[in-house]
Amino acid sequence: MFPLFLVVILCVVGHCTGSERYYNALHFGTSINDYVLFNPDMSAFQESLSVCAWIKRIYTGSSYPTVLNYRHSSSAREIIIAATGTDLEVLYDSDLESYSSRFTTPAGRWFHLCLTWAKSTSTSKLYLDGVLVGTGSTSSRSLYTGGGLCLGRLHPSWSSSSNYVFGGEVFNLNMFSEVLSDSEIKKAAQEGLCSRRLQDLESRVLKWEYILSQSKSGSVRETDTGCEKTVEVNRNLTSLLNETTVKLGDTEKELEIVSEALNDTEHTLNSTLKELAGTQVKLGTTEETLNSTLEELAGTQAKLGTTEETLNATLKELQTTEELLETEIAQHNETAEELETCSDKLFDTRSKLSAARKFENISRWDVLYTEPYYNRVFTDDLYNQLTTSWTMLRKLVGVNITDGVVSHFQKYHVESMCDVLGELSTGWEMLRQFVGVGMTDGLVDHFIEAHDGSECENNTES
Length: 462
Hints:
Order of helices and strands: HEEEEEEEEEEEHEHEEHHHHH
Oligomer: single chain
Shape: rod-shaped
């Protein structure tokens, strides 16, 4: 019992969070007895306030379907909010009622409403679905405190008319001790029925979870809005979104790395493409050069074929020439042998001719050039040979002296040669004085020059 009593006390003073009930709405019937009445501490709202709630009108039989009425003994209409805008007052001033035509949300649908007021500006403002639709002027006094707050109709101590029955649903009604900004109200409306954007503000003094804990009259009940599941889904989605955001952050970093790698790759690719373009140009040039070279090679091969034919013909000619040369060499050798034989014969002929030439102008003294006498010491024997009888030569007068005749005398009449010479020359006696003297060129030349004119005497004694 004690723990349950403690929970009830905490909820009464406004400290019960009631998370399991926070997402419930209050459903009001069409009876004058369907309402929630309590006396909250309103001291926090004396200088400024903001009242925000989600409202769904269901019953359309009331002229002034009152959602909220804060009544003080000095001011029964200190704060009034009707679902159709036909009754909107702050500090008993009804300027905002002129904007009732802006309440166009049909019955059965939720809409968002905010009412703000500030003593410092004596101004009230009305927001529908996050949009400022009207502004009113109020007195410059402070809000009265100590009054009672009734939801679902006008305060019972003031009126019991059914024209003020709400007959709809209210959700997430909170009172703030400050004037909320336009952007805060707009975001809360845009985020929808289940938004908790304004729940964590420190100025949220009168809280919805506290209102839900109050006593309910008539057929007022709590009804599920589905926001708990939606919030849970949103929470999961938010968690997933956060995780995804983290992953996206990591992915973004990875993408940056990949992007840098792609940029490097793109740069490399561009460089490679440029190199490839250059290579293609070089390949084109190389291909042209290759084609030209192939043409030259074809021409060279053709020339080689012609050259080969020419070479083969030349080889045949060389072979023929070689055979002719071998024949000519053989003939040359034969000719050389013949020439050698001719040379020998010529040499003999020249020798004979030379010997014959000696006898063309032979004198009686030329006999001294012959081998028995020339370059030898002249002796009595040599003298006797020269002075022997040559008378037989007279028999040959008128005869042609030939090799045969000479050979005959050389072979058979050597000893009688001096006799012949004695007949051919005179004055041989003078040679006696040269017995013992060597026969030289000078001596012989002397006899040829000085004594060639004398007649050869017959020296029979010698």
